[in-house]
Design brief:
- With about 260 residues, the protein is of the alpha/beta class.
- The chain folds into 2 domains: about 50 residues; about 200 residues, Rossmann fold.
- It is built from 10 helices and 9 strands.
- The strands form 2 sheets. A 7-stranded mixed β-sheet has the order 5-4-3-6-7-9-8, sandwiched between helices. A two-stranded antiparallel sheet has the order 1-2.
- The longest helix has 14 residues.
- The N and C termini lie far apart (about 65 Å).
């Protein structure tokens, strides 16, 4: 089988599975595996046809300015989340806390961009923390990134200039509407609170004031319909200067507040 026939056969597998733009996906897969023989390459294409996320097949996702290891134990970083990183970097900070760090992509992107900073990432999943540790090591940030097992603030000590989080915000009733790549292959605990999608924000906003330094910021990623509810939670917690930040598509993506 020559290269043209191989790519055509792989694209046909993806097209039959309903994958959008199968030719583009096949080209990306081939660029990442240029030396794979036809049988191996078609096996990779078959994985994608089963709706395994491309990041899981490749083993990585490019996010912000870095490449991160990604497995089925962590949320696949999305370009939308870069809006949170960019907004956080608009103001100075020296200590940052990332609640529900997953792959570590938010925490590590932030401290990599600020040489004099350090941070703590928490997660309730030991498997996710192991992925984050690998990413910290790859970026030579192990000495500046503490990664601990914690149920939100439970094991967190001290105060921070910046607290960030991309918590599970999909309501349980919405889970069946997600793409198969997300619904079947990403950790459910990172996607939904098994309730109304707002439970994590209630805990984060309630606990943030005790862990923020004076003038410190809380910034959380949200679903596109949650800006008002989360803004009110921050106000109820005593935070000020509440603002909603949009992503590149103009959708509400981040809510930010500041401790007086």
């Amino acid at each position: 089988m020559n290269e043209t026939d191989l790519l055509r056969a792989a694209a046909a597998l993806l097209a039959d599975a309903g994958i959008p733009d199968p030719q583009r996906e096949v080209r990306r897969l081939r660029r990442a595996n240029p030396d794979a023989d036809p049988d191996v390459f078609l096996a990779l294409a078959a994985q994608r046809a089963r709706r395994v996320p491309m990041a899981h097949i490749l083993g990585y996702r490019d996010f912000y300015h870095h490449r991160f290891i990604v497995t089925s134990d962590v949320l696949d970083p999305r370009p939308d989340t870069e809006a949170l990183v960019a907004a956080a970097l608009e103001a100075p900070f020296t200590r940052v806390l990332d609640l529900g760090t997953g792959s570590g992509c938010i925490l590590l992107s932030l401290i990599a961009a600020r040489a004099q900073t350090s941070g703590t990432g928490t997660d309730i999943s030991d498997a996710a923390l192991e992925v984050a540790r690998h990413n910290a090591a790859r970026l030579a940030l192990t000495n500046r990134a503490a990664l601990i097992r914690s149920d939100w603030f439970a094991a967190v000590e001290g105060t921070f200039d910046l607290i960030v989080s991309n918590p599970p915000y999909i309501a349980a009733e919405e889970m069946d509407t997600l793409q198969p790549e997300v619904r079947l292959h990403e950790p459910r605990i990172a996607l939904t609170d098994e309730a109304d999608g707002l439970s994590a924000y209630r805990r984060i906003t309630a606990g943030a004031p005790d862990h923020l330094a004076s003038g410190g910021r809380l910034m959380v990623e949200i679903g596109p319909t949650q800006a008002q509810a989360v803004s009110w939670m921050m106000l109820d917690a005593g935070l000020q200067q509440i603002r909603v930040i949009t992503d590149l598509d103009g959708r509400n993506r981040v809510v930010a507040g500041r401790k007086p």
